[in-house]
Design a protein that fits this description.
The protein folds into three domains: 130 residues, NAD(P)-binding Rossmann-like Domain (Rossmann fold, 3-Layer(aba) Sandwich), CATH 3.40.50.720; 181 residues, NAD(P)-binding Rossmann-like Domain (Rossmann fold), CATH 3.40.50; 81 residues, ACT domain (Alpha-Beta Plaits), CATH 3.30.70.260. 31% of the residues lie in helices and 20% in strands. Helix 1 packs parallel to helix 11 and helix 5 crosses helix 7. 43% of the residues are buried. It binds 1,4-dihydronicotinamide adenine dinucleotide and 2-oxo-3-(phosphonooxy)propanoic acid. 2-oxo-3-(phosphonooxy)propanoic acid binds next to loops. Catalyzes the reversible oxidation of 3-phospho-D-glycerate to 3-phosphonooxypyruvate, the first step of the phosphorylated L-serine biosynthesis pathway. Also catalyzes the reversible oxidation of 2-hydroxyglutarate to 2-oxoglutarate. Keywords: NAD, Oxidoreductase. Belongs to the D-isomer specific 2-hydroxyacid dehydrogenase family.
Length: 410
């Protein structure tokens, strides 16, 4: 359990992967961080372990897998920034156990996903993907068969969160009836109606769109049994996570004609970079729109995400604030001018605060402010002391056996 002093900003190593928008680097530089290494693509295996070894902060998108093993190699890592919504690519518990908060951007790309899906709804219900594919091959499929207006049709939204709700509102403006299924009771927006079970939603919808996170409960939530329950000639859209749909079962249902068309943006296995081949049982099916995980990839979303997450990393580095961390006790802090701030991350066991207060009192260290928050197995105490007492306060904190890591902000 070693102490982590605050470093000069130019000694803080920041590793940015997956071609983050330049806004991320701009924010970090404006905040005084100059030691930034940016990569266009993701890193895997030994390359990732080597790169993360000396990083104090890392920024990733949905591709980079920060497993327990990778995190165990990141001895200096203070925080992880997911420049996206999903945080399933990070072992959040392993990060918390190592005293590493994980931040994300919960809103910035949601509109982009909702807009893409709205466009796909119209395209699918007109049979455009197939007509387009055929035209590229010189075939002329002028026909109204299987081609429908969306007005008056039923859209079933699975997962009525930030994206699902926006999609529902947009679809209603086109005259669609919106129903949704969610594990939580949700306030319906517009004229949307919550249905009690997934099967009810599947049986009633002309088009189903999935907007749930990757969790154990959403794994393969759409498999052959669920596809059979969908109306004959209906459509499926998945812009959530590749684990949510049994992709082989979807390919069979589309090939058999029971599902008239699909739009899929996320896959169980996605290429690691734009140079790698994309393999999927859905390839070659003309009535399936395949997109390379670009639901959130718009200039507007990426620019905002860069600002939002880089800002959260800089704030945590500068003042210890963990507001909106997804795996960590949340503390919102102002600046600490004139005093030093100690950030003590510890195992959440009884008696840690007493030990700190007792040790400080014995050494005559006056605590002028103290905040404690806990989440699960992790406790986070932020204290302010006179700057000339910061070193001895740090030494005391390092003697407490529940300490995971300590930082001082001078
Ligand atoms: N394709 C892309 O580029 C993008 C994909 N995403 C994916 O979309 C997902 C959803 O994003 P948001 O709407 O912002 O998330 P959110 O957290 O606001 O909403 C998710 C909703 O799903 C519900 N839910 C969770 N488990 C469920 C279950 N088993 N059955 C039914 N409902 C369940 C939750 O209660 C919540 O209402 C993200 O977790 C991410 O994986 C997000 C952004 C871009
Ligand atoms: O925000 C998310 O969860 C996404 O899926 C978008 O991921 P990306 O930033 O495009 O790798």
């Amino acid at each position: 359990m070693s102490a982590k002093h605050s470093l000069d900003k130019n000694k803080i190593n920041i590793l940015l992967l997956e071609g983050l928008h330049p806004s991320a680097e701009e924010v970090l530089r404006q905040e005084g961080y100059t030691n930034i290494q940016s990569y266009k693509s993701s890193l895997v295996g030994d390359d990732l372990k080597k790169a993360i070894k000396d990083a104090h902060f890392i920024g990733i998108r949905s591709r980079t897998q920060l497993t327990k093993e990778v995190i165990s190699k990141a001895n200096k890592l203070a925080a992880i920034g997911c420049f996206c919504i999903g945080t399933n690519q990070v072992d959040l518990d392993a990060a918390a156990e190592a005293g590493i908060p994980v931040f994300n951007a919960p809103f910035s790309n949601t509109r982009s996903v909702a807009e893409l899906v709205l466009g796909e709804i119209i395209m699918l219900m007109r049979g455009i993907p197939e007509k387009n594919a055929k035209a590229h091959r010189g075939q002329w499929l002028k026909s109204a068969a299987g081609s429908h207006e969306v007005r008056g049709k039923t859209l079933g939204i699975v997962g009525y969160g930030h994206i699902g709700t926006q999609l529902g509102i947009l679809a209603e403006t086109l005259g669609m009836q919106v129903i949704f299924y969610d594990i939580e009771k949700k306030l319906p927006l517009g004229n949307a109606k919550q249905v009690a079970t997934l099967n009810k939603l599947l049986a009633q919808s002309d088009i189903v769109s999935l907007h749930v996170p990757q969790t154990n409960t959403t794994k393969n939530m759409i498999g052959s049994a669920q596809l059979e329950k969908m109306k004959a000639g209906s459509h499926l859209i998945n812009a959530s996570r590749g684990t949510v749909v049994d992709i082989e079962a979807l390919a069979l249902a589309v090939s058999a004609g029971h599902i008239a068309g699909a739009a899929v943006d996320v896959f169980p296995v996605e290429p690691k970079s734009n140079q790698d081949e994309f393999n999927s049982p859905l390839r070659g099916l003309d009535n399936v729109i395949l997109t390379p995980h670009v639901g959130g990839s718009t200039a507007e979303a990426q620019a905002n995400i860069g600002i939002e997450v880089a800002g959260k990393l800089a704030k945590y580095s500068d003042n210890g604030s963990t507001l909106s961390a997804v795996n960590f006790p949340e503390v919102s802090l102002s600046s600490h001018e004139g005093r030093s701030r100690l950030l003590h991350i510890h195992q959440n066991k009884p008696g840690v605060l007493i030990q700190i207060n007792q040790a400080f009192s014995e050494k005559g260290i006056n605590i002028s402010a103290q905040h404690l928050q806990t989440k699960g197995d992790i406790g986070y105490v932020v204290m302010e002391v006179e700057s000339n007492q910061a070193e001895s306060a740090l030494a005391e904190l390092n003697t407490i056996k529940e300490t995971i890591r300590v930082r001082v902000l001078f």
